[in-house]
């Protein structure tokens, strides 16, 4: 695999990572609570879905202070990772045009650090979701929980895809350095 192809692949990976993370941050389908109660016509009223910026709830409202603090951390970390990706893409473009192994290596590690921001944000969101579910279980009667289905939505999955693409961009840039040193 030639240097140009590897660098182009890393650039596409970084750009796609940015796109997936931007879409996931801007959408509201991170966590879905679906209530399907038999013989109840307004089950949708009890259902809810949430994103980073808003929660679309039915008639139940539950929040603890700890859940709020976790949510604030996620809302800070993931957009910060998004901004860092923009700079990573710029650094990657400059270092690949300069054909500098040191700059490419630095950019590769920069992308790997960006992936740490993303995985930290996702991990905090999982913890936040677990705490929200504990609150939900405390508020809702145990027999009613049989009708509740909880899942992570497609926005959450897109964040994991972004994380994988960030890792790929970093590793591809390291491969580009190796390819450059081997003279291909």
From TrEMBL:
Q: Which InterPro entries does its entry note?
A: PMP22/EMP/MP20/Claudin (IPR004031), TMEM114/TMEM235 (IPR039951)
**Ribonucleoprotein found in the keyword field:** no
Q: Where do transmembrane segments lie in this chain?
A: 73-95, 107-126, 152-177
Residue ranges that the Swiss-Prot or TrEMBL entry lists as coiled coil: none
| This protein's UniProt keywords | Membrane, Transmembrane, Transmembrane helix
GO (cellular component) term, any one: apical plasma membrane
Topology relative to the membrane: Multi-pass membrane protein
Give yes or no: UniProt keyword Membrane: yes
* Cell location: Membrane
Predominant location: membrane
One Pfam family name is: Claudin_2
Q: What is this protein called?
A: Transmembrane protein 235
**Lineage of the organism:** Eukaryota, Metazoa, Chordata, Craniata, Vertebrata
């Amino acid at each position: 695999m030639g240097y140009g192809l590897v660098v182009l692949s890393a650039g596409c990976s970084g750009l796609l990572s940015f796109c997936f993370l931007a879409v996931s941050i801007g959408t509201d389908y991170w966590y879905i609570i679906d209530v399907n109660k038999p013989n109840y016509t307004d089950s949708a009223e009890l259902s809810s879905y949430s994103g980073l910026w808003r929660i679309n709830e039915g008639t139940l409202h539950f929040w603890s202070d700890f859940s709020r603090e976790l949510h604030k951390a996620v809302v800070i970390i993931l957009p910060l990772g998004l901004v860092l990706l923009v700079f990573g893409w710029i650094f990657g473009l400059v270092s690949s045009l300069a054909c500098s192994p040191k700059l490419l290596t630095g950019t590769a590690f920069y992308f790997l650090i960006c992936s740490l921001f993303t995985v930290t944000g996702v991990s905090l969101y999982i913890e936040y979701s677990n705490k929200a579910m504990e609150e939900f279980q405390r508020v809702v009667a145990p027999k009613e929980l049989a009708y509740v289905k909880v899942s992570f939505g497609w926005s959450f999955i897109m964040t994991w895809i972004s994380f994988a693409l960030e890792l790929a961009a970093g590793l591809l840039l390291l491969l580009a350095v190796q390819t450059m040193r081997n003279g291909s």
